[in-house]
Amino acid sequence: MHINISRLMRDIEAYAEYGKEKDGGVNRPSFSAADYQLRELFAQELEELGMNVSVDAIANVWGTFPGNGEKDFPLVIGSHLDTVPNGGKYDGALGVLVAKEIVQTLRDQHITLAHPLEIVSFTAEEANEFNFSTMGSRAFNGKLSSEELYEAKDSTGRTLAEAVEKAGGKLSQIGAAKQKTMAAYFELHIEQGRKLEKENLSVGIVDSIVGIYRDLVTIEGEQNHSGTTIMESRKDALVAASEMVAQVQKLALDLASDTVATVGKFEVFPNSANIIPGRVEFTLEVRSSDKQERESLVQHIHDSFYEIKNRHGVKMSVTNSYNTQECDFDKQLIELLEDAAVESGIPYKILPSMAGHDAMNLAPLTKTAMVFVKSIGGISHSPQELSLPEDIEKGANILLNALLKADKVI
């Protein structure tokens, strides 16, 4: 069975109008005006497909297409509709729209599954001003409490409770967000990397998501006059921090593996041309599918930081802000995806995801698997983000046919 790729591509272009920028990028952070507008359109389109639409306590949007009554628990396909600032049109939205297209295809073919079929668009998958990435799926699986969510505010002072309520949710009922028992969860996403492109493949089947570790590192030196302070008596926070950043790169490269380490945010205080920097703050992130290697690299990086700190006579604090373990996906669902690919004559690769996704928060709750579609140039979180229709069609068809198989055997 095949989806209608022309219809799907029209949907992708239509949804990209919400938050569209002059350079072709999409700026649709969760709880922005564009996000609220698209939520309304999405719910309306699900209703037009004959789905029952609901919004849970954290404002995840659910659409349910009834089954024939033979099986109680739903098969679920999901992703997210929010974007990073000045992002692309495929990250997240592609997975939601493929799910919608699969429902439309089943309707066109007059097929009713044994299971109910549900679509979900999770709230705030991307990093946001409330500092809860994968917010909707984390709240759904019970990882976020109403107490910590109630404390969150954005840069304008707006509370998360206010933002969620405007989207149809209600934080006071957050315990009720985790209501659904699922038969299985599928997610289609762009790869956001170059592995598929390097092997000239359209599709990947994801067997795991890497563990992600993040620190906030603060270096305190001695702020002083840049002209009157001699070099040998300086305690320059920027010089020390710069050496640390270089060590992150060196130690990660020395591993010669898929483990990656990044300093993605770097701030200098007071950041003036004639002042020796007194404080620097930066983030450290390490990602790997190998827990032992990830933890070992973090330890080696920390050791190098302390050596640099002592040598420069500065102070340092390291605060862990995020630490998720690697996540393995369900072997039965992976086999169903492989069978669907083989039967369709579509070459594929089994690979891990180096990025976090909502699927990692569903995996502890139900059978879970993901399909990747090739990203041209490996580019994502950018207006240049691109996946080609022929690659999208192959990924969507594999997911559709694996879903039909899952309906019979799960």
Give helix % range.
25-40%
SSE class? alpha+beta
CATH architecture of the largest domain: 3-Layer(aba) Sandwich
Low-confidence stretches: none
Overall geometric form: globular
- Average per-residue pLDDT, rounded, comes to 96
- With helices defined by DSSP (H or I, 4 residues minimum), what is the helix count? 12
What separation lies between the terminal Cα atoms?
20 Å
What share of the residues does DSSP label as strand, in percent?
15-25%
The named CATH superfamily of the largest domain? Zn peptidases
Fold-level CATH name of the largest domain: Aminopeptidase
How do the SSEs run, as a string of H and E? HHEEEHEHHHEHEEEHEEEEHEEHEHEH
Q: What's the β-strand tally?
A: 16
CATH domain class name of the largest domain: Alpha Beta
What is the radius of gyration computed over CA atoms, rounded to a whole number of angstroms? Answer: 23 Å
Main sheet overview? 9 strands, mixed
How many discrete structural domains?
A: 2
Question: How would you describe this protein?
Answer:
- Helix 1 (5-15) packs antiparallel against helix 3.
- The two termini are 20 Å apart.
- The radius of gyration is 23 Å and the shape is globular.
- The protein is α+β, with helices and mostly antiparallel strands.
- It has two domains: 5-209 and 326-407, Zn peptidases (Aminopeptidase), CATH 3.40.630; 211-324, 2-Layer Sandwich (Alpha-Beta Plaits), CATH 3.30.70.360.
- Strands 1, 2, 3, 4, 5, 6, 14, 15 and 16 form a nine-stranded mixed beta sheet that branches.
- It is built from twelve helices and 16 strands.
- It has helices at residues 5-15, 33-48, 93-108, 135-140, 146-150, 160-166, 195-198, 237-255, 291-312, 331-343, 359-362, 389-409; strands spanning 52-55, 61-65, 75-80, 117-122, 184-190, 203-209, 211-220, 224-225, 260-262, 266-269, 275-276, 279-288, 315-324, 327-328, 348-353, 368-373.
